[in-house]
Amino acid sequence: MERTLREFLIAFMLSILLMYMILASQFESVVLPFTILLSLPLLPFSLLSVWLAGDTLNLYSALGILVLLGVVKKNAILQVDHMIALQRNGMERLAAVKQGTRTGCAPS
Questions:
Q1: Residues 5 and 57 in one domain
Q2: Where are the alpha helices (DSSP H) in 28-58?
Q3: Which range among 71-80, 83-92, 95-104 has the greatest average pLDDT?
Q4: How far apart (Å, rounded) are the C-alpha atoms in residues 101 and 99?
Q5: N or C: which end of the chain has fewer CB within 10 A?
Q6: Domain region containing 105
Q7: Number of structural domains in the chain
Q8: Would the pTM count as exceeding 0.90?
Q9: 87 CB contacts (<8 Å, ≥6 apart)?
Q10: Tens-place pLDDT, residues 19-48
Q11: DSSP labels, 67-79
Q12: Same domain as 107, residue 85
C-alpha cells in the first residue's frame, strides 16, 4: 500500500508537470497555465464530499473525480482562451476578464 501510494503521488506530480508544460506551449506563456491549474484544487473538496456522503473512494467515485477534474480543466482552458481572444480584439485586460467570466466560452 505504501509503495502504491508513493508511486501514485509521483505519477500525479508528473502529470501536473506535463499538463503545465503542454499548457505553457499552447498559450506561449509562463503565467497562464497557473491560472488554469489553480482550478484543480477542488480535488480535496470532491474527496470531502465523498466522505461526507458516507461513501468510500471506490472505482466509480475515483472515475467520477477524474472526469470532474477533466471537465473543470477543459472549462478553464476555454475561458482563458476566450479572454485572450477578447484582448486580441482590442479589449483591455480587466474588461476582457469581466466579459469572459460573464459570457463563459461564447463567441464574441
A1: no
A2: 32-37, 43-52
A3: 83-92
A4: 6
A5: N
A6: 42-108
A7: 2
A8: no
A9: 93, 96
A10: 899 999 988 889 889 888 888 777 778 888
A11: HHHHHHHHHHHHH
A12: yes
